[in-house]
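Q: Protein A?
A:
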Amino acid sequence: MEVKLQGLTPLSLAGSRPQPSGSADLRQAAEGFESLFLTQLLKSGRAGLPGDDLLGSAGVDTARDMLDMELARSSAGRAGLGIADAIERQFAPLVKGRPE
């Protein structure tokens, strides 16, 4: 199931820095990957909890998944994990030679 959360703004813009237009797309893609990683990390952590809660239902699960996705999206690039930075460093030489 894929849930798209459009129009939501990050909880905090602290730590964001302006990017040159050539690397803006790369930075966005790197933060998107970090967001996916954090979402999977949160899902795996929740899967390790013992048993279902008393209010467990499809609606609660969907809301929890949406919360996890938003937390991951707003934390990507700002959480200090360095995944987005590493991806950006690795692929920057490939993007610099490409016309926009």
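Q: Protein B?
A:
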Amino acid sequence: MNRPALSLRPLALSLGLMLLAQPALSASRENAQKLLAIQQSTLDAVARGLVENPVRQLLSSAETVLRARVPADKREAAARQIQDAARKYMDDTLPVARRRAADLAQQLLLPQIEQKFSDEEIRQIVVFYESPVAKKMQTVLPDINKVLAERLLSDMRGELQERIKLLDQQMSAALGLNLSPPASAPKP
């Protein structure tokens, strides 16, 4: 039986094309990885917020309880113990949250970046973020935003205090802690 000889040429050509395409994929992945690395401070801020926000709330509540229920001679020691516990929580939990954020960024953000941006767009974004102007922007923006935040707080301090006081009174009344009507509540 005469069988036609198998040509290895198409197979070699296909394998060659696949190998040529491989560096392009890894270059794209490499740029997407660079973009994630550039965004590390944002990932860290997300992790820090996740860990710090509950601590801030607990410390605020603890301060209220300290003033209201702890004898004056024991407040300083209790406050120190609370601060130490909060610091230990932060020291133990923040690194775990940062690592988890980095892992999730690899799992969730990397595919999103590669899906929503072309290779060239990713490259351009990386070039921008690595540029001197982007680095300057990242160092200057916090100061610019601080000016806005300070002015906003200054402009709204009185209004915010009144609104918070009213909210506190309403919440206390709802909990049955203070049955007298709020002093600055609007008349029905």
